[in-house]
Design brief:
The protein has 637 residues and is an alpha/beta fold. The chain contains 21 helices and 17 strands. The structure holds fructose -6-phosphate (F6R).
Length: 637
């Protein structure tokens, strides 16, 4: 394949990048980006081979570099790239940590790279989480010295934590720091919690290569994917150098490139507000984005914006193209006004020319795809309720069992009830015993997992019955990719796609609702959406698909930006309460769920806050004052 080279260019030299202090390249997706990075590493290894030299690589773990390693393995297997001259130094390891634990970075590196290439095991260096506390200080000094003896790192691969850490150099790290034992930041532990099945299992300490060593690498590439890295990347790339954001030290390195995907780059000035850095081509999306930004900046509603507001804030050429603020404002106001509808399935017998949905057929068949058993009510409970009340044939397809998100004590409660009813049940005895054994890998026990999945299934039925959907319209797909028993899932497979295809083909829906939450590129929601997209590709030539519209809601964590919203469904205060009640049926997910993230609000609070916030934003733009709004974006296939 013809892969273009990632060229290093000093940041800030061009008009567009004048806010930036670190060179970065933005790719439309992380797979394509990773292939480029792997290619650069492969080229370096080959160049060193020609010079009869060793190639000294600094390597990272975490979710960001996985695809780079996968591609390196492919290049090794298919193109014969040899790693015989490669010496590696990993950035970090949890401390303490057993080598053969699935949580160790030792395990990670072997699983993703070393077991599949011809590297000499003697050339692999990973900080050891098993060194005694007494020996640790000297061990760290020796690790740094060994890198020096090899002449330093030729190449360093990095990820970035939400704290701005590189390696595990957390805020407060010195720019000349060496390899050492450090205490992990709380945010870092929160981010690691899902794969450890709870924050209490995440080690508090780690060994990390220091900033000083990283900065001496001859070439550095940092990878960052996904919305949740966008804020720290803006600070790192555009902010001042500070120990509060250790990655900013990379501004002083003269051969560093950040490789980003679109989500990760979205807060950079040139992406978020491109009109502030260069003349723009004003398509409809950019125009909406800019006008809404202008309203927030000036604290004005749309119809109050003036020519001066546009001219003073980088939008003079938009004004020149469109004529006047008056015209621009009216057009924008109408556009947003037309996203609002109390009839998400279309309003029967009404003129639908400026409504988000078609009036016909007046009774639609609808599938709500829900990645986990509660996303339907959390993300679109109000719309769900209206669809049922307005007489549409609503089906819900739960894509995964969601079993790993049920805690052991919750499962124990149900198991003991079964035991109370049926004291002779030996199967339930075994489950109770397994749960009580408190072994961390209890999730791997298939019967415990099944019980947990069933708990979630019954909770879903309670919620859907409450909203008035007959049981026959509820479909539990139990997609196989999810059933690993751990946070790490299998990649999407044909069998997953077949299951989704079958249900769409059976129901022949006029509307599909799906979770368009792409915040976590490796997350379940993304895989579930990929399964639907793959199915749509397969089915799109069927006649009934011409009549099928796909609407995306976002997951529990985020909402669409206002300019992205194409359908906004208002909720009255009573409907908000009804939605809350529907969420309450998911009892196993209440009171501190297992995969909380760093947002400690319960799901129903988060959902309400988000729907109130969308309504507040609409009102601030000059639209009607609703209690709450749910938002959707159309997906065209
Ligand atoms: C891993 C490491 C960390 C990660 C960072 C991002 O060896 O040193 O700095 O690169 O925490 O992690 P992911 O890639 O999982 O988002």
């Amino acid at each position: 394949m013809g892969v273009k080279k990632i060229k290093y260019r000093p940041a800030g030299q061009f008009e567009e990048t004048r806010f930036e202090k670190i060179h970065n390249v933005i790719f439309s997706n992380s797979n394509e980006a990773s292939i480029h990075v792997a290619q650069e590493i492969a080229e370096l290894i080959k160049t060193k081979q020609k010079q009869n030299k060793k190639c000294i690589l600094g390597l990272a773990t975490g979710s960001s570099p996985i695809k780079v390693y996968e591609e390196l393995v492919r290049i090794h297997k298919e193109e014969g790239l040899s790693f015989s001259n490669v010496v590696t130094f990993n950035l970090d390891e949890y401390y303490p940590m057993e080598i053969n634990s699935t949580h160790s970075y030792y395990y990670f590196m072997h699983e993703h790279l070393f077991n599949h290439i011809n590297i000499d095991p003697k050339n692999i260096n990973i900080p050891s989480g098993t060194v005694s506390l007494k020996e640790l200080h000297q061990y760290c000094i020796d690790y740094g010295l060994k890198i020096k003896e090899y002449g330093g790192l030729d190449f360093q691969l990095l990820g970035i934590g939400r704290t701005g850490h590189i390696g595990f150099n957390e805020p407060g790290s010195h720019s000349n720091s060496g390899t050492r034992n450090i205490t992990l930041d709380h945010i870092t532990r929160v981010d690691a919690a899902p794969s450890f099945l709870g924050i209490n299992n995440v080690p508090k300490k780690a060994i990390t290569m220091g900033i000083g060593t990283v900065k001496k690498a001859k070439r550095i590439i940092l990878l960052a994917w996904g919305d949740n890295k966008a804020s720290i990347l803006k600070k790192t790339i555009e902010g001042e150098i500070t120990s509060e954001v250790p990655a900013t030290y990379l501004q002083e390195h003269n051969n560093t490139t950040f490789i980003l995907n679109e989500e990760a780059s979205q807060k950079l000035t040139r992406i978020k507000t491109p009109w502030l850095v260069r003349p723009c081509i004003w398509d409809k999306e950019l125009t909406s984005k800019a006008i809404i930004w202008l309203c927030v900046l000036t604290k004005k509603s749309i119809l109050k914006l003036t020519d001066k507001d546009y001219n003073n804030n980088g939008m003079s050429n938009l004004l020149a193209e469109e004529g006047s603020a008056y015209d621009l404002n009216i057009e924008m106001f109408n556009k947003i006004q037309h996203t609002i509808t109390g009839w998400p399935g279309g309003k029967p017998n009404a003129d639908d020319s400026s409504r988000p949905e078609r009036a016909t057929p007046s009774k639609k068949r609808v599938i709500i795809f829900s990645p986990h058993p509660d996303d339907d009510v959390i993300s679109m409970g109000g719309t769900f309720d209206r669809l049922v009340e307005q007489g549409h044939e609503v089906h819900v397809a739960y894509q995964t069992s969601g079993n790993i998100a049920v805690s052991n004590h919750e499962a124990l409660k149900y198991a003991e009830v079964i035991k109370d009813i049926d004291p002779k049940n030996t199967k339930i005895d075994a489950i109770i015993q397994k749960i009580n054994s408190e072994v961390i890998d209890v999730e791997n026990n298939i019967d415990v997992r099944r019980l947990k999945g069933l708990i979630r299934k019954r909770e879903s039925f309670s919620a859907t019955r409450f909203l008035g959907v007959p049981d026959k319209n509820i479909h539990f797909l139990n997609l196989p990719f999810y059933e690993t028993g751990t946070v790490k899932k299998k990649p999407l497979g044909q069998e997953d796609v077949d299951i989704v295809t079958k249900i769409i083909d059976k129901i022949k829906p006029h509307q599909i609702y799906a979770a368009g939450d792409l915040a976590d590129p490796h997350g379940t929601h993304k895989v579930c959406l990929d399964a639907i997209i793959a199915s749509l590709e397969i089915l799109k030539h069927n006649d009934y698909m011409n009549d099928c519209w796909v609407w995306l809601y976002r997951g529990a964590w985020h909402e669409w930006d206002i300019h992205q919203i194409e359908m906004a469904v208002p909720m009255s205060p009573d409907q908000v309460l009804k939605k809350r009640k529907a969420i309450f049926f998911h009892e196993s997910q209440k009171d501190g769920v297992m995969f909380q993230g760093d947002d400690t609000r319960e799901f129903w609070v988060r959902a309400e806050d988000r729907n109130y916030e969308t309504a507040r934003k609409y009102h601030a733009l000059g639209l009607a004052d609703y209690a709450a709004l749910e938002a959707f974006k159309r997906y065209h296939f």
